[in-house]
Design goal:
By secondary structure, the chain is α+β, with helices and mostly antiparallel strands. The protein is built from 10 helices and 15 strands.
Amino acid sequence: MASRLPDLYEVLGVERDATEDDIKRAYRRLARELHPDVNGDPTAEQRFKEITAAYDTLSDPVRRRQYDVYGRIGAVPGGGGAGPDVFPFGDFGDIFEVFFGGGARQGRRRGRRTRTRPGEDLRVPLELTFEEAAFGIATEVPVDTLAGCEACGGTGCVPGTHPTRCPHCGGSGDVQQVARSVFGTVMTARPCPTCQGAGEVVPDPCHECRGEGRVRERRSVRVEVPPGVADGMELRMPGSGCAGRAGGPPGDLYVSFQVKPHPVFERRGQDLVCELSVPMTMAALGADVEILTLEGAEVLKLHSGTESGTVIRLRGKGIPNVERRGRGDLYVTILVETPEPRSKEERTLLERLAELRGEKVASGGRLSGRLRKLLG
């Protein structure tokens, strides 16, 4: 006579009208108590299998409805005996999916890891003169990097050999641990210490790179600096960084610009500003004066009566726009120099000028305030 099959609701300790959440909570509570990794009782493992099989049936709406109608899974109306799924054991990925929120199943979908890794990015400084930053330059920059090992072709293995699956983690790259804590039973995953999370090991490392697949190298990289760059800007050069591991893509190279200051010009965005000192006579009478620009010397026309502090704008004489057309402007501030009479003749001329303009010279040989203002 066949033994009576256990009632799956009794196995989980829930009522027959229990909701899906009730069933899940009951299973989690029992699993924490009966999991073989945390319960040393010899009967705990069998009990754990029973509650897992019960949950596997009652958590599936179709199978639960079949169980409620026929009393067993796999039975048919009028048929005898239980089908093969009275206690349908799922794999431990299904158990951990309920117990730990699906992490194990996600790990299985991810697939076996490999040693392939992208290369690291590199950053190098590049010092530029003010003019080089303004108009651009092509130059060679030395870079310390990691290049693919030519002896092993980047595999890290002695030629003729190949990497093998890590025996410790089975190629997953992770090792899992189950422990009890104040919050209950907790499972943690950490990178495998044998393969450092790669999932593969190199049984016969290359003698040149010691299994890394990469060797240190200093090489020269040609950098095309675009016109208009400023201090602190970076230029990204895709694929010019370190070589990837085991055939992975290379990293990028970032060139950081350090622009030297200019003795004459100050940069404000794409514009330039500078100051030009001129004698009082040239400012008063007007003149053509020579001024420095980024392209060299140019002639600037001063109108008669130019006052100190006058700003003259030279269009298109500033900094080119990065990756766009056009340039900024150059703003020149005129500073009128006030002369100090160096001879009796010069003083006589200044006094005559003051007399002609109806201005009185102050006592002590100093010019009147109005004349001083005129002279800048």
